[in-house]
Amino acid sequence: MIQQLQQTKTKTLSFFDLDAEDLKKTYASGSWTVQYILHHLTDTETVLFDRIRRIISKPRPVIWGFDQEAWANKLSYEQRPLALSKKLYESTREGIIYYAGLHYEKDGHLEFIHSETGVRTLKNEFDKVAEHNQNHINQIIQALK
């Protein structure tokens, strides 16, 4: 898990340094631009990091889902500086890696209740961080072809 989190972090951070033309590319008609995907990854990291800490800190918490489209629109992905998102992504991912090292194996069984998907575990949430990131890396690679 730690290796996968490190690898996806390294690859994702490299995309933040793309030129303006590449940041405007999409992987499919009507899909988000590379820039939007990077902002989305940053916001998702912060949400999942918060969830992870809640699961570790409180027995079986109820955790609410979030509307990614609303976040993209209301949090001004079009104007938000990419340099800000890069810093947030990197520091948040470092926190996730730290807690994965401490809790992935030992406490992966801890449960929480997601408002939309029901009962899940801490291990599920760590896995989701890596899988979600890899899915968006694949979209960015497709957009850049």
Summary tags:
single chain; 145 residues; mainly alpha; Four Helix Bundle (Hemerythrin (Met), subunit A); three-stranded mixed beta sheet; 6 helices; 3 strands; 65% helix; globular
pLDDT average, as an integer? 96
Gross morphology: globular
So how many helices? 6
Question: What's the number of structural domains?
Answer: 1
Give the number of DSSP strands: 3
Looking at the structure, the CATH topology is: Four Helix Bundle (Hemerythrin (Met), subunit A)
Rg on CA atoms, Å: 15 Å
Structure characterization notes:
The chain has a three-stranded mixed beta sheet. α1 packs antiparallel against α5, α3 runs parallel beside α5 and α3 packs antiparallel against α6. The longest helix has 24 residues. It starts with a helix and ends with a helix. The radius of gyration is 15 Å and the shape is globular. The chain has six helices and three strands. 26% of the residues are buried. By secondary structure, the protein is mainly alpha-helical. β2 and β3 form a beta hairpin. It has one domain: Up-down Bundle (Four Helix Bundle (Hemerythrin (Met), subunit A)), CATH 1.20.120.450. The mean pLDDT is 96.
Write the layout of secondary structure elements.
Layout: H1 2-15, H2 20-23, H3 34-57, E1 62-63, H4 68-74, H5 82-103, E2 111-114, E3 118-121, H6 122-144
Helix pairs in contact: 1-5, 1-6, 3-5, 3-6
Care to give the gist of this entry?
The chain has 145 residues and is mainly alpha-helical.
